[in-house]
Fold this protein.
Amino acid sequence: MKKQVRWKCERCGDGLLAPSKPRRDDVRRYCLPCSSETGKLVERIAPALEQHRARRVEISRQKKKVERQREKARAEKKMNTPREIAKRKYSQVGEYGMPIKKETERLWKMLAKMPSTLPGARDAIRRVSTWDAPKVSLFEKGWSVDQKNPNRVFISPGAAGTAYYDHTIKVKPCVAWATLAHEIVHRAGYSGHDRDFYMALKWLAETRFRMIIDFSKITRYGYEVDWVISGQIADAVRKTFEKIEEAAS
Ligand SMILES: [Zn+2]
Ligand SMILES: [Zn+2]
């Protein structure tokens, strides 16, 4: 025999025992005297079943709450990876913006005045005078941040067909400048990361900021040299772009 529960009419309080899941048309579901008095079917309810259902609703609500908290913790954890922190720090909360388009055009023109005594200069000058300044595309996905060194942000100069975003970037300015200049020097025809490339980059930085960059500690040429440059230009970059910022505001 199936387990019986008490069904009760809420109107008259009258009740009886019936299975927990009576058929839809089972007469025990309804209080007949009340139905006859009111002219409408009056249903009986099973308090035990109602309580049980309320408990189930509560448990499921709790489960959902825990799941939401877990979800939130997961999202927070994801937002706090070195990459995400660096992205926030250098793409949004930077000290001030560097006008990428203007700076790119300025550096490009500057390269046309390279002294022809610099290795590779003749080729670079020819390219720079024939080609337009590269279009620098910046978009969220384009950010590439070195996991080990969150200061490092890559900016890719847009090739034909890439979208052009005419806005300022907010990254650590000396790094942004050095990276931009690095890419522009590549664009001028220096493809490797050799001495010729870095001599051109050094010249560009020195000319742009009217200063001398010390390469005396350089023993080999590679990405480390970019750090030497950005370290030495930091003050000059700050002064230069702070002025632009003031003028603009
Ligand atoms: Zn009744
Ligand atoms: Zn490079």
About this structure: The first strand starts at residue 4 and ends at 9. The two ends are 85 Å apart (CA to CA). DSSP finds eight helices and seven strands in the chain. Residues 47-79 form the longest helix (33 residues).
